[in-house]
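We emphasize that the prediction below concerns an isolated chain of 278 residues; any contacts that depend on oligomerization or on bound cofactors are therefore not represented. The input was used exactly as deposited, without trimming of termini.
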Amino acid sequence: MAEQRLQRVLAAHGVASRRKAEQLILAGRVTVDGVVVRQLGTKVDPERQEIRVDGKLLRPEPRRYIMLHKPVGYITTTADEHGRKTVLDLVKVPERVVPVGRLDRDSSGLLLLTNDGDLIYRITHPRYELEKEYEVLVDGFPPPEVEEALRRGVPVDGRPVQIRRLEAVRTEPEGTVYRVVIHEGRNRIIRRVFERVGYPVLRLHRVRIGPLWLGNLAPGQWRDLTPEELAALRRAVGLSETAAGAESKEREQYRGRTVQLRGRDRRSGRIGQKYRRR
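Result of the prediction step, given as a token string:
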């Protein structure tokens, strides 16, 4: 195997995202053949060299790609110092998967978890502009001029938020339900932008990430992505089949795999379920 950058190797082995892997290296927590490496960009051969993180030998780990319907009340993190429920309390697998991006505690919907660091980086980095779609209930009934201001871009922290699509789909007694498509990943960005125009969010539910739809997955349930879903997601963030290279065999392992749901199994659904108005 050709030499690769150390942070890329760590990400590819599911240790952390590439950005977090860089932090591990700079902190002196990574050794190569017994020597602490702090230089970013150091090239290594993982098949010939002994790589350890915090003293633990780096071993290849099967890739896992999971779709979860996150319920309200769960924290999008791997652990919580206050003892609150996390999404990993719902997803029990032997691989060390981590959430991709975040949904805040009061939000629900589609959340991805994986141990593929390269894919995490591309899904979360704004450069790749992967769309996320939400169903958002706001407090009240914004007039057309407020909706137009949202479409033009409302500044948050001195930077305008670009909403790619804003569509009122129905009204409820509490307010208006919008379909919102955005590619930004700033913390609580949708809640913050609606607060700026005077209409706080009462309910936020993510229904889509790129080509992946939540579909009829019930709250708290999870399943593995199908090979077709994984391929579509990789294409959406610019990871071609040829770039996948060594991962092609791993994708084949997903063919015919029974989709796991909490308490029962069933075969996977389609990628492109259409948005339905209620």
